[in-house]
Amino acid sequence: MTQQGERAIDVINAVSRFEYFTAKKATSLTGMSRSYVSFILGLMHKFGAITVVGKIGGTVKYQVSRNAIQIIENNFTEIFKQSHCVRGNEPLGTGMVIVDRANVNGMGNPLLRKLDTLLSGVRV
After folding, report:
1. Can you give the CATH number for the domain in which 33 is found?
2. pLDDT tens digits, residue range 19-69?
3. CB burial class (10 A; 0-12, 13-18, 19+) of residue 47?
4. 64 backbone dihedrals φ, ψ, rounded to 5°
5. Residue 123 in domain
6. What is the pTM for the complete model shown?
7. What is the DSSP letter of 21?
8. For the range 55-63, what are the long-range contacts, defined as Cβ-Cβ under 8 Å and sequence gap of 24 or more?
């Protein structure tokens, strides 16, 4: 078993006494980082060691399966890598627009544009 499997068993031992748990609760009980616990929980959910009980406001609630430790011992035989978000497929021209002047038609706050036109005589 890999170190990830040992960490997964640590998470299971910490949260198995609860009816359901969240990633935040598992993080506080184990002392691991939230991103690492979320990654381990995702792997355990994929293998069936934990199940999703519900979702409230974007917070996922998990429940430990009866044979979770056996599932972890069978499936965590190799090291899994965390995938990182890649933003490479965005079309060109999206994002922040840089302009030469502050008073460009159709851009900016209307109040600030009006103030800019009123102050243009003072700036000269």
Report:
1. 1.10.10.10
2. 999 999 999 999 999 999 999 999 999 999 999 999 988 899 999 999 999
3. middle
4. -80, 135
5. no
6. 0.64
7. B
8. 59/22, 59/24, 60/22, 60/23, 61/20, 61/21, 61/22, 62/15, 62/20, 62/21, 62/22, 62/23, 63/19, 63/20, 63/21
